[in-house]
Amino acid sequence: MLRRFAAASRSGSSAKLVAPLGCLVSKQKHTLPDLPYDYGALEPHINAEIMQLHHSKHHATYVNNLNVAEEKYKEALAKGDVTTQVSLQPALKFNGGGHINHTIFWTNLSPNGGGEPKGELMEAIKRDFGSFANFKEKLTAVSVGVQGSGWGWLGYNKEQGRLQIAACANQDPLQGTTGLIPLLGIDVWEHAYYLQYKNVRPDYLKAIWNVINWENVSSRYATCKK
């Protein structure tokens, strides 16, 4: 079944996903984005069973739980119930982050991916990491080294005008927790690879480079520089 890509959230910007105290939450419900490719399109690097479970079960759960948490937050906000507003922050961060992260992740992958980036992104990688090989080695090491569950990221530091590599625990969203603008995310939760690679995370990391969508990453880089 073809999964055509839809907007990450029909509710607006990702800034609304984790609602700070005193702010209104989004008015529309978040929805699960379609994929721009079949579940089996990334084989043999990521198999269809993983992609189907990851997208239709795991990501869908984050979306559903985010909507529930936002509804409860809206009610607490209307009542002036600050205690409940505070208690809902972890759920908003976890499920909102899961929705943000996976929405980026699906577009970062492509059956026509792999190889190396071109143009401005490649020049920036060489400037900030010395070479593409060095960058690839560093992001792989950071991703493999995440303790438990989390993400490895290539982000853009807008203040310093340079690329940075970072790791985030659990579903912490990169921009919301570090200020870096996300360009490329690698999901290292076990649900992203265990059915195919068991507990050998380095093998999954080696394989995923074959399906990285550098056009998408380059587009994100160009957009965040504007």
Q: Can you give me a brief rundown of this structure?
A:
The chain is mainly alpha-helical.
Account of the 3D structure:
GO terms for molecular function: manganese ion binding; superoxide dismutase activity. Keywords: Manganese, Metal-binding, Mitochondrion, Nitration, Oxidoreductase. Destroys radicals which are normally produced within the cells and which are toxic to biological systems. The protein has 226 residues and is mainly alpha-helical. It has one domain: minor pseudopilin epsh fold (3-Layer(bab) Sandwich), CATH 3.55.40. It contains nine helices and three strands. It has helices spanning 48-79, 82-87, 89-108, 119-129, 132-144, 174-178, 194-197, 201-208, 214-224, and strands at 150-157, 162-169, 181-187. The protein has a three-stranded antiparallel β-sheet. A hairpin with a 4-residue loop joins strand 1 and strand 2 (162-169). The longest helix has 32 residues, at 48-79. The protein is globular, with a radius of gyration of 18 Å. The protein starts with 47 loop residues before the first helix and ends with a helix. Residues 1-26 have low confidence and may be disordered.
The structural class is mainly alpha
| Residue-averaged pLDDT | 91
Strand content: 5-15%
Q: Which series of helices and strands comes N to C? A: HHHHHEEHEHHH
CATH topology: minor pseudopilin epsh fold
- CATH class assignment: Alpha Beta
Low-confidence regions: 1-26
* Lateral strand order in the biggest sheet: 2-1-3
Number of E strands: 3
Oligomerization: single chain
Backbone shape: globular
Distance between the termini: 37 Å
Cα-atom Rg, whole angstroms?
A: 18 Å
Summarize the biggest pleated sheet: 3 strands, antiparallel
CATH H-level superfamily: Iron/manganese superoxide dismutase, C-terminal domain
Number of DSSP helical runs? 9
Number of domains: 1
Helix fraction, binned, reads: 40-55%
CATH architecture: 3-Layer(bab) Sandwich
